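step: validate -> pass
step: tokenize input -> pass
step: predict -> running
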Amino acid sequence: MGERIGVYPGTFDPITSGHLDIITRATKVVDCLIIAVADNDEKAPLFPLSERVAMILGELDTVQSFTSTRIDVRSFTMLLVDFVRLCGASLIVRGLRAVSDFEYEFQMAAMNARLAPTIETVFLTASERCQFISSRFVKEIARLGGDISSFVSPRVRGYLDDKLRSERSSLTVR
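step: predict -> pass
step: emit ->
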């Protein structure tokens, strides 16, 4: 049996403690984990693709200290199953926070299975301490001046503070 390669796709806008929880736990089931950062303008990300990749790379030191699994970060713009094939992977890793996530993720897994029957999707449920964390809520709380320190690392908080400060100054200049 060869190396088991898994792909954990997402927008990661920004990467949260919940994402890091799934990444850490996914390293227990694969030999190589590719964090696939989607370039999806339909989601109107706050951060450009290059900054999202940089944020993830900056967070991996902590995860890498707990595992021998190789972790790569790559961006992609194609159909997920095509990207997974291109990486030589056979597994898609998805995180589930709540029952509400399951319906969408189940449909996506079924669609991917139809498109690529040799690629399996594995669901990891969020740890209890991370079940409620979403990038969307983190951005909203940060925009409204709330404390996000328990949802993201200090480094990611700095990225958010800088981005939101920039947004505010561009609004006041107009």
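step: describe -> The mean pLDDT is 92.
step: cleanup -> pass
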